[in-house]
């Protein structure tokens, strides 16, 4: 969980796949909306079919929207509904470098984002007084390890919070946020469990 989550929060999973994480977040939190973006249409359709089959019993699944789109063609920071995201999750270790760079730039420009959970460093040469635009906005808060899948080894996840500054930074990134939230766990949701009555 990520501290206090209210109906004002919008969760976004970039590279959502079937939407497992999106559905899990919808089921376990008070977030008002849970979004995902995935470029493989057949994967999105399979995941949405699973969500729809369980939505009558698990009403929080009605908050789930996974949209088909490529992050190279979809500027998350200015494209509705993604621009409203306050919590962003990226299991991006399989992303190609151009996609990682596009997401990195978008994360700096997302006006409401306050927490990022990712599997990438984004600044490989980070140091205390780093002047990188990403580091100017986002502070590394915690590194944790969890399973991305039941069958896989532990994966490192980086948790970043909006920096201490308030207002527009020189790099065009909007800074500042209310109290930072701490991530205690990231859990994968298996849609088969939901169908069987989670």
UniProtKB/TrEMBL annotation:
| Taxonomy, superkingdom | Eukaryota
Residues annotated as domain DOT1? 4-127
The molecular function terms of the Gene Ontology recorded here are: histone H3K79 methyltransferase activity
Alphabetized InterPro entries for the sequence? DOT1_dom, SAM-dependent_MTases_sf
> What's the protein here called?
DOT1 domain-containing protein
Where does this protein come from, organism-wise?
Answer: Phytophthora nicotianae (Potato buckeye rot agent)
């Amino acid at each position: 969980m990520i501290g206090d989550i209210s109906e004002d929060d919008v969760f976004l999973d970039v590279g959502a796949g079937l939407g497992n994480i999106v559905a899990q977040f919808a089921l376990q939190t008070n977030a008002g909306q849970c979004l995902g973006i995935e470029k493989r249409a057949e994967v999105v359709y399979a995941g949405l079919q699973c969500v729809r089959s369980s939505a009558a019993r698990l009403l929080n699944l009605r908050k789930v929207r996974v949209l088909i789109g490529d992050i190279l063609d979809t500027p998350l920071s200015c494209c509705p509904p993604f621009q409203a995201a306050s919590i962003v999750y990226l299991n991006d270790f399989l992303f190609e470098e151009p996609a990682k760079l596009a997401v990195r730039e978008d994360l700096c420009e997302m006006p409401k984002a306050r927490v990022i959970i990712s599997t990438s460093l984004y600044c490989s040469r980070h140091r205390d007084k780093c002047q990188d635009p990403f580091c100017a906005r986002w502070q590394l808060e915690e590194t944790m390890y969890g399973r991305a899948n039941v069958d896989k080894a532990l994966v490192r996840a980086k948790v970043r919070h909006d920096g201490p500054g308030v207002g527009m930074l020189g790099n065009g990134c909007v800074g500042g946020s209310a109290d930072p939230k701490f991530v205690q766990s990231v859990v994968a949701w298996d849609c088969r469990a939901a169908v069987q009555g989670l």
